[in-house]
Amino acid sequence: MRVAAIDCGTNAVRLLIADVEGDRLTDVLRTMEIVRLGEGVDRTGMLSPAAIERTRVALVGYAAEIKRSEAVAVRMCATSASRDASNAQEFRDMVRGVLGVDPEVITGEEEATLSFLGAVKGLTAPGPFLVFDLGGGSTEFVTGTDTVERAVSMDIGCVRMTERHLHGDPPSAQELAAAEKDVTVAVDTALAAVAGREARTLVGLAGTVTTVAALAHHLPEYDSSRIHHSEISRAAVGRVTGELLGMTVEQRLALPVMHPGRADVIGAGSLIMRIILERSGHDTVIASEHDILDGIAFGLTASA
């Protein structure tokens, strides 16, 4: 069954067209555009017209790809920024006009469940798992082995923390201290809610995690096959975080594995990742390229 799954987050909108048969998913197309839909939402509570237009342009391209692929089912899930915005209806109307389907503005808990489903299929490490999906506006924490047992969403993400705290280029010591305090409180709350410290394996999802993995492994270019299910030590995450937070945006842009749309927020993202490792007590984290997109795709076949 060929399906199309779209994940629209605070920072990026991503498309997966895949053939799904049982527990097997074969990519036809997996692509991403950085649209920064959630730009300014933490401060204003609204999606800006410019951000909605950037997202519309990306979705027009995705609609053409979906039509060419002859996918038989389409689902778009919109996450943190769309939950928080007071003008979310304007966004939903735009999506319906472009894709012909309504976007599902899912809760943080639903987002966590879909991320977990995508992340643990095919993972050979021992459970129970603590999966975290580090997004632009929020980070989801979910524990379980074969199915989700507990899940919670916290309003810490690379875009939100950058806009809230990290204004310098590079950020100052005072800005970093404020961000670290904010993130630590949220992470401790989440770990207590999902019994995260009892999990045997820590799994990290999304662009911050995979970019940090690429930097930790000293890859000359971004290589999904080498990143997927690779293990990164707490020490390596700490090293990469320190390096990123000490760089200017221009210096981060020069890194061969860095997506241009991620360079200004990767410092905050890596800080969140480092704190999750420290506060959870895990010595390593497994990076997964499979995440909420895969969960959406599997869910489409289950509901068909």
From TrEMBL:
Keywords: Hydrolase. One of its GO terms (molecular function) is pyrophosphatase activity. InterPro entries: ATPase_NBD (IPR043129), GppA/Ppx_hydrolase (IPR050273), Ppx_GppA_N (IPR003695). Residues 17-299 form the Ppx/GppA phosphatase N-terminal domain. CDD domains: ASKHA_NBD_MtPPX2-like (cd24119). Gene3D superfamilies: 3.30.420.40, Exopolyphosphatase. Domain 2. SUPFAM superfamilies: Actin-like ATPase domain (SSF53067). Pfam families: Ppx-GppA (PF02541). PANTHER family: EXOPOLYPHOSPHATASE, EXOPOLYPHOSPHATASE 2. This is Hydrolase. It comes from Actinoplanes cyaneus.
